[in-house]
Amino acid sequence: MSAAQRHDEQLAGLIAGRASVVAEAEVTGSPRALKTPGPSGRAERWAAGAVARSLTSGGQVTHARLPVVIIGGEEWQHAGAGQLLRVTGKLRPPDPGKVEAAILTASSPPVRLAAAQDWQRAPAALAKRFASATWWLADDARGLLPGMVTGDTGGLDEELETAMKTVGLTHLTAVSGANCSLILGALLLAARSLRLARVPAAAVALTGLGLFVLMVGPDASVLRASLMGAIALASLAGGRAGRGLSFLCLAVIGLLLVEPELGVSFGFLLSVLATLGIIVLGRCVMGWFPASVPRWAAAAVAVPLSAQVLCGPVIVMLQPQFSTYSLLANVLAAPLVAPVTILGTAAVALLPLAPWLATVLIGVAGFFAGGVAAVARFTAGLPGAAPPWPEGVFGLLTMLHFSVVTLFAVWMAAHPARTVKLVFAAHAGVVRILDRLPKVRLRRRPQRSWET
Fold it and tell me: Averaging pLDDT over each range in 112-126, 184-198, 271-285, 342-356, which range is the top one?
């Protein structure tokens, strides 16, 4: 047996045995507040992504790079990305479909062994300052705006979070590929408006996207979202689905080689499927609309529809219910997401330079964030917003069939004249088939004497 195999078996044994360990771990993302209390009844809990460098259990030290999620009390809300901490706690296996290898429930406050570097501290401090600067907004906007801009979902109201989950707007509660695409697209347009060539403009846009990722926190999920968002934007802007599909395949292969655990992650699968839907179906669906429909309006329908068509069968496997108004909610919220993301991100950058201008941008971005919250609450309150859906393989196949029917219905709505022609052609075909059938002469059955 190789040393690597023995090493992996030792780590697996610690996780499966729910061992008590002393871990030295480097925090990789910003802590987030958990809404539900833990088994011990502790009301306020925080979770932070980290990489465990060493685990000590039973006097034996195991060196590793083990991705974990640390769950602890309120003292963990001040942990920052890049910090090296020592913590005592108990390991346990993660939920199915999660990327992390284990969950470490902390039984002690974190002990700082090394501080984060300046390039890691500054963006995190700026994101916290932005969240504090939204104190004067309405409740829904104050809770949703930091999540949509910096990924801080700590202030999100539980009822609003449930409403957004019901109507398929969960991807807007935190930074996703859509946010990264908007930032990248806005930077590209700004660079091109300054008459920069394509290569310098792309370099400026990618640099800005990198700074945005640092501000949000270079979590693995944020890095994947930025990569998928960039691929989807490049495919839609370039008009070449084949090139976008090639980039997507290379990105998936590279990510799986670097992080094989992604192969069992539902979040990674949904991200890939959403990007695949936008690349393969997005431009096709946009082409269905007549020239009189503005391109932005066609994209507002095509992008969420193409993503949901491929993600829907997987989502019902995780959550067996049907989001009846998901497409409607995404179409209504789509025009509001860009102002929130772009103006909010600009406000973050202007906070240390021009606080008064940043406050104005926060107010405008908060107004649009409140609109997103209003859309979620309104559509979630409509009748039949979340009816149950069959579980298992039958539910998956049913949703797949329903997705195909939905695409066909959108095509018919976008081509009314051709739809009428198809209906008449189908009617004529049925008539011809019936005419060619042999005539069947019905003979009357003679009555028997006892039936009279």
Answer: 342-356
